[in-house]
Write a structure and sequence with these properties.
Elements lengths: L2 H18 L5 H36 L2
């Protein structure tokens, strides 16, 4: 099988698989995006607070 035939077979398989994909609606995508943004902000705030607390604790130990 030549490289060109393998490429054609590959693109045919890709198209077949993409037809099976359940794409989200615009509203679902928007809602999911907001969930991700809020989650990232909450995790960043938590990590920032833990980092600040540990930084102060280490500062007290080595003072």
């Amino acid at each position: 099988m030549s490289a060109m035939e393998r490429f054609r077979e590959y693109t045919k398989d890709v198209r077949s698989e993409l037809a099976k994909v359940s794409w989200p609606t615009r509203a679902e995508l928007r809602d999911s995006t907001w969930v991700v943004i809020i989650t990232v902000l909450l995790v960043a705030a938590f990590i920032g607070l833990v980092d600040q607390g540990l930084n102060r604790a280490v500062g007290l130990i080595f003072r």
